[in-house]
Every structure is written in structure tokens, then in C-alpha cells.
Write a structure and sequence with these properties.
single chain, 118 residues, alpha+beta, TolA/TonB C-terminal domain, four-stranded antiparallel sheet
Length: 118
């Protein structure tokens, strides 16, 4: 009787949908580039990644941001001005923080471009 219940459990585990699902590791890895152009760079740039939904479709994209800077070069608020798609806008919003208390002397443009190598 013990053997019958063990076989039944193994059989049930073998036909469950989870056992047959594809994992993210099944997709071959592709090289990508995140290019940042601007006179100033916010400290959160290391948080940027390639948006998964854009990466699986091999889509490239870009965002234009503005960065507030004071006379001493301290970076204040960052805001997203325009993006090529919502996927990239979500990723760029990682740089947007709460307005920091800096005396704004100037606003600098910042452009982020995501691309995949073929």
C-alpha cells in the first residue's frame, strides 16, 4: 500500500503544469548597452537595467530627463520629460527622487538610450 501512494504522488507531480513551464533561463542571453549622455549624472544610474518586456522583444528605446543642479554642482531633482515607450519610462523613473533642497542654478538635459546587440 505504501508503494502505491508513493507512485501516485510521483505521477501527480509529473503532470502538474509547473513541471512543464519554461523558465527564464531557456531564453538565450543577449548583450545590451545602456548609454547615458549629459553634463551631470545622478547617483542612481547604477540602478538602471534593461526593461524585461522590451528585452524579450529586442526593442531599443530612450528617455530624455532633466536634472536640477546648484552652483556647487550638487544634484537636486530629476524628472522624466519624454520616453519612447512606457517600459523605458518606468525604468527611467528609478532616477526620479523627491525634490532635494538645492538652490537651482541650472537645469541640465540627460538622455538615456537602451539598445540590444544583434
Amino acid at each position: 500500500m505504501k508503494h502505491a501512494s508513493i507512485i501516485l504522488c510521483v505521477l501527480a507531480a509529473g503532470v502538474m503544469p509547473v513541471a512543464n513551464a519554461q523558465s527564464a533561463g531557456d531564453t538565450p542571453a543577449r548583450a545590451f548597452e545602456i548609454k547615458v549622455e549629459g553634463a551631470v549624472a545622478p547617483s542612481g544610474l547604477h540602478q538602471l537595467t534593461y526593461p524585461y518586456s522590451a528585452g524579450v522583444k529586442s526593442r531599443a528605446g530612450s528617455c530624455d530627463l532633466s536634472v536640477k543642479v546648484d552652483d556647487q554642482g550638487n544634484i537636486g531633482a530629476v524628472s522624466v520629460e519624454a520616453c519612447s515607450s512606457d517600459d523605458f519610462a518606468t525604468e527611467a523613473s528609478k532616477l526620479v527622487g523627491v525634490d532635494e533642497t538645492v538652490e537651482v542654478a541650472s537645469v541640465h538635459p540627460l538622455r538615456i538610450e537602451w539598445s540590444m546587440e544583434d
